[in-house]
């Protein structure tokens, strides 16, 4: 007999206004999406996670480094690394943030007891996938992939549209779990028009699901050096069809 999940959607959600907003703007930010205790439990698991990767585009190549290990490296090595990351971001697509690859961990038979596996199961539960289909109007959504992200001062994600051939991404999502955040700390999800101007910005808000159709130009603004905490979230895409990793199992 399977044990009940500790994470549940807010049973009082009225999705009508968010479906209407999605139809009009291609994006919506749904507050109080989980039961309050569920959101707090997920945040606690993120705060207690023993290992975070440092994900970056370094000279046009994706790298995943041990975040604590990078902090322990000599200042000269860190400065050289940052110079490459910033050069890439200045001239093209770039990013720098901490992550935990929840999707990969869940499908790894050696990590079946990982504390974030239940987060993956929440995102792929029937109620959550039905929410995604209902709000977006994309009836072929079949699963969600996921990663945990932690943005610290200096972290960022430059302009992109999430459209990758063969991934069948219907909508991107950000489940924000930041307990306290000010917009002037940065870390805003910026939506850009065809002229490169900011059309709208979503600030991190605790227990809020930002969801937007793919493709859509957006970025995450750099987190300020004076930010008073970390920007925690679970992010990924609602994708059409069957999870390809389940087919391989």
Automatic annotation (TrEMBL):
Keywords: Dioxygenase, Iron, Metal-binding, Oxidoreductase, Vitamin C. Its cofactor is L-ascorbate. GO terms for biological process: regulation of translational termination. One of its GO terms (molecular function) is L-ascorbic acid binding. The keyword Iron applies. Residues 142-240 form the Fe2OG dioxygenase domain. GO terms for cellular component: cytoplasm. The keyword rRNA-binding does not apply. Pfam families: 2OG-FeII_Oxy_4. InterPro entries: Oxoglu/Fe-dep_dioxygenase_dom, Pro_4_hyd_alph, TPA1/OFD1_N, uS12_prolyl_hydroxylase. PANTHER family: HISTONE ACETYLTRANSFERASE COMPLEX (PTHR12117), PROLYL 3-HYDROXYLASE OGFOD1 (PTHR12117:SF0). This is 2OG-Fe(II) oxygenase superfamily protein. It comes from Amphiplicatus metriothermophilus.
């Amino acid at each position: 007999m399977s044990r009940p999940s500790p994470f549940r959607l807010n049973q009082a959600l009225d999705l009508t206004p968010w479906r209407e907003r999605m139809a009009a703007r291609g994006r919506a930010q749904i507050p109080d999406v989980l039961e309050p205790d569920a959101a707090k439990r997920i945040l606690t698991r993120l705060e207690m996670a023993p290992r975070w990767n440092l994900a970056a585009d370094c000279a046009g190549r994706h790298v995943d480094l041990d975040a604590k290990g990078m902090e322990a490296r000599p200042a000269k090595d860190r400065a050289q690394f940052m110079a490459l990351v910033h050069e890439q971001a200045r001239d093209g697509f770039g990013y720098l943030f901490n992550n935990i690859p929840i999707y990969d961990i869940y499908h790894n038979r050696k990590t079946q007891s990982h504390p974030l596996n239940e987060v993956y199961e929440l995102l792929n539960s029937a109620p959550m996938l039905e929410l995604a289909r209902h709000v977006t109007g994309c009836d072929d959504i079949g699963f969600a992939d996921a990663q945990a992200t932690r943005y610290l001062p200096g972290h960022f994600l430059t302009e992109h549209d999430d459209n990758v051939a063969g991934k069948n991404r219907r909508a991107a999502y950000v489940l924000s779990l930041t307990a306290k955040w000010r917009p002037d700390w940065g870390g805003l999800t910026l939506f850009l028009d065809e002229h490169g101007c900011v059309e709208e910005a979503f600030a991190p808000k605790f227990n809020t699901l930002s969801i937007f159709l793919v493709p859509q130009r957006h970025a995450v603004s750099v987190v300020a050096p004076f930010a008073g905490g970390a920007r925690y979230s679970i992010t990924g895409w609602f994708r059409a069809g069957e999870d390809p990793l389940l087919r391989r199992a």
